[in-house]
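Anyone able to model this chain together with copper (II) ion?
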Amino acid sequence: MRSALMLGCLLACGPDAGEGESASSTDRIVSSDAEPRPRLRSPAEAPDLAPDDPERVQVELTAAPHSFEVAGQAVEGWAYNAQVPGPTLRLTRGQILEVTLHNALTDPTTIHWHGLHVPFEMDGATWMHDPVQPGQSFTYSFIVDQVGTFWYHPHFDTARQVDLGLYGAIVVDDPDEPEVDLDVVAILDAWAEIDDRDDHHGLDGTSPLLTVNGARDPILEAPPGSVARIRWINAANLAYAGIRSEGMTVIAGDQGLLAAPRHGEVLLTPGERAETEHLLGEAVEILGDPWSLYGGRTPGPVQRLLTVEPSEVREAPQSPAWAFSGLPPTPDPLSTDLVYVLQGDPMTQDWRINGERFPDITPFHLDLDAEAILEVRNLSGSEHPFHLHGHAFEVLSRDGVAPPYREIVDTVNVRLFESLRLRLVADNPGSWMVHCHILPHADQGMMTILGVGDGPHEPHDHRGR
Ligand SMILES: [Cu+2]
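re: yes, here you go
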């Protein structure tokens, strides 16, 4: 049972909590009163078992039950190699990542490589391939020709397995990028005050307790006058986090460097990543704005997520010379190849795509290397992070408005009644999952299949979620 996951009233729970507040710098900021405040550490990196092979990073991950602490509370969960978040997998663009998964759980499991363009049989989705059974092992192996911040998690009974603690970061370095003084992985997870269901721990995502690498409101110690690069991953099942900080620059998103930097804030929905740069003359606080799935930025307490604290005050350093491309968005051809209508209702939790619930779905199909325009319309009563496996795609427009620069992602939030137009080059053959990354929504049916090349294949339910 999951009762140990039900954290107590750790957020502001008073009768006036969040009432009548608006999004401004005068918002009440909720911080921890724990003393001393915990120190933030990047999740330990997995040791490379083939250190003499420059072409390959070889790692072993054992998924097993594990007891750990979150914000001072005991949790009976699951972990990779007895750590939550799991070991960070770090490699350089062009290397082969080879991961042997040992399943020491009582349930089947898989690993999905969120955001990486892996061959279909390595994707960890149980649409066509059986999961790894208890006591069994499986070796995933693929070349990585992308850079940036990605993550891995199971794609079997997904909401529950991720919620129990099975997730970790993947960092793919570009040898041509400037070095920074501090390069930190910061994985967000969310915890509800009360949750009597056993499938996830946030409720409607409006005011969960957000933790960073399992710590509430930690301090990141930094050398004086340093440049910090923080790689954020939202591993929560359904909580959104509006991240903001004075002087913060968002330098990268789901798929490496942005075409142009953005200043001040970034919304991180489940599954998404963002990299932020902080030029540390003095300490900076990084805040999390409350966000409702039912209508965006919402009144309520702002949480302090993290304080980055140099050991002494200095003049702020210069930003390194990031190689932003400055590319404009691709012009919209104004034709449409595939339409995805997101439907559902928070009252009934009946989530669908085009009227269908997984696995009773009709797969779409694209020829290999086809360029396709997807239109995603949200007619449901909730926002949804739309995610496609095996590919990244470009956001051409939101409600007809093109972004200022080219925007390449693998997960994109679709707000209430919004229409997005996306451009996809279907260059990876397989029967790929298309789903909402609010994992309970996906488990409840908001998932379908896009066949590329020889696909699609007939639906085949292994609880393939
Ligand atoms: Cu959803």
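The chain has a mean pLDDT of 88.
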